[in-house]
Write a structure and sequence with these properties.
8-stranded antiparallel beta sheet, alpha+beta, 3 helices
């Protein structure tokens, strides 16, 4: 999992794909944090992406950097604990201009049954499960 986190942080922006009915939806994200040994992302409950994740927690992430890309597939599980939200916001202090662990809007999800595939045009794909 450490390799996945390092790649996503170095890429800076990754793209999260969800499903909205029968339509895929993709948008840029930038938050990734490890809390209690799990990989977390963050969003706001008022956003459509939150509603899509709650309706269907199966998602994929993709990011590209230095001629390599990653695809991370798995299920997102909401962690409604204040400590989990605070950990994310502490890792991304700029988010505190828009979010607070106590605002009723901030939510964090961790990956379950995650499969990450590292790819490039010059090497065979490598898979990491966590």
């Amino acid at each position: 999992m450490e390799r996945v986190v390092k790649f996503l942080k170095e890429a800076g922006t990754y793209y999260l794909a969800t499903v909205d009915g029968d339509q895929p939806r993709v948008r840029p994200f930038g938050t990734v944090n490890v809390f209690e040994g799990k990989l977390y992302i963050q969003t706001g409950k008022v956003k459509d992406v939150s509603k899509q994740i709650h309706a269907n927690p199966k998602v994929e992430i993709s990011a590209f950097k230095d001629g390599q890309w990653i695809r991370l597939a798995g299920e997102l599980v909401e962690d409604d604990r204040r400590e989990a939200r605070a950990s994310m916001l502490d890792a991304y202090p700029d988010l505190r201009r828009m979010y607070s662990e106590d605002d009723g809007n901030t939510e964090v999800f961790y990956f379950k049954n995650a499969v990450a595939t590292f790819c490039s045009f010059t090497a065979a794909p490598e898979t990491v499960k966590f």
